[in-house]
Amino acid sequence: MTESDIFWADLIFVMEKNHKNRIMSTFREAVDKKEIVCLFIEDVYTFMDPALVEELRSKLSEYIEFGESDD
Q1: How many structural domains compose the chain?
Q2: N or C terminus: which one in the chain shows less Cβ crowding within 10 Å?
């Protein structure tokens, strides 16, 4: 993540509270007016793990409308 990523984003999602804290301390000024949403998903999954994808879809559905899955 870079400072320009933060400036670009309207909303920032993180999996764990420590991710949020790290972003807030590293990019203090850039995140001043940004909303950071913690999804409270333990960071124990491998990349594209189906269980992670399902949990992300579930938690993000409040914020994002998903189309039909290719599964």
Answers
A1: 1
A2: C
